[in-house]
Amino acid sequence: MTQLYIGIYGASGFGKEVMPLVREQYPHLSKEQFVFIDDGQAGTFLNLYPVLSYSNFLANPSSEKAVTIAIANSKVREKLVARLEQDNVKNIDVKASNVVILDEVQMGEGSLLCPFTCLTSNIKIGKFFHANIYSYVAHDCVIGDYVTFAPGVKCNGNIHIEDHVYIGTGAVIKQGTPEKPLVIGKGAIVGMGAVVTKSVAAGTTVVGNPARILEKK
User: Fold this and answer.
1) pLDDT tens digits for range 111-136
2) Each residue of 20-79: pLDDT tens digit?
3) Would residue 130 show up in a list of annotated catalytic residues for this protein?
4) CA dihedral sign, ordered 109, 114, 116, 117
5) How many domains are there within the chain?
6) Based on the domain organization, do 69 and 126 belong to the same domain?
7) Residue 144 is part of which domain span?
8) Is the pLDDT of residue 139 over 70?
9) Where are the alpha helices (DSSP H) in the chain?
10) Quick one: residue 146, left, alpha or beta (phi over 0 = left, psi -120 to 50 = alpha)?
């Protein structure tokens, strides 16, 4: 029988929320088969689970190792994914038991869908997508790789979100149209509570209602 050993990469507040979701997905495993991975906190415990360095996680004699990355920073996620691939550690998809997914939804690998997430219909999502609690994606949306939704993001229909976008807590993105989707450009940041009514250029940060570019002082 394969001895599976699962690490939650990131011993943080978000990691504490993700661990129970992973345990729920693998009810046949014992608690000893789950750990946190965080080089900065190695040797400690978090919610009674050991926190290991990445090298110590790799050194465990289990025949199969798997990881989910509970880190909101998309650039860090991308670097860790490359490390895991190099070491032949597989990524697992995490989905809370009450997540709603309707028709024709395509998901890339490594997704992390927290409780009360809703993905409606005709949606395409890239790899290593994070949707925190109470977020939704409505019909006919296209989402790139390494996109992060903080809690309570409302992504309405006909929206295109490019790679490495971060959408802050409670942000609302106005619905686009099939002929002219609303676009959030690569690497853009949408601030907490922002109401996005028009497309956002790549690499910019928008805040407020209606959302406007954050000017650097």
Assistant:
1) 999 999 999 999 999 999 999 999 99
2) 999 999 999 999 999 999 999 999 999 999 999 999 999 999 989 999 999 999 999 999
3) no
4) negative
5) 2
6) no
7) 95-207
8) yes
9) 13-25, 54-59, 74-86
10) left
- Residues with Cβ within 8 Å of 167's Cβ and at least 6 positions away in sequence, in order, are 147, 148, 149, 150, 153, 155, 161, 173, 184, 190
Q: Could you tell me if 129 and 107 are in contact, meaning their C-beta atoms sit under 8 angstroms apart?
A: yes
Amino acid at 32: E
- Mapped to the 3 state alphabet, what secondary structure does 170-217 carry? CCEECCCCCCCCEEECCCCEECCCCEECCCECCCCEEECCCCEECCCC
Mean pLDDT of all residues belonging to the chain: 96
The first and second tokens of residue 172, run together, are 């609302």
Q: Are residues 37 and 81 in the same domain?
A: yes
pLDDT at 1 (0 to 100): 43
Domain-embedded: residue 217: no
Q: How many residues does the chain have?
A: 217
Same domain, 105 and 199: yes
User: Among the options 28, 130, 139, 160, which is catalytic?
Assistant: 139
Cβ–Cβ < 8 Å for 37, 67: yes
Q: Is residue 111 part of a domain?
A: yes
Whether residue 109 sits in one domain with residue 135: yes
Sheet holding 118-119, edge to edge: 100-101, 118-119, 136-137, 154-155, 172-173, 195-196
Looking at 70, 92, 114, which one is the last position of a domain? 92
Q: Is the pLDDT of residue 2 over 70?
A: no
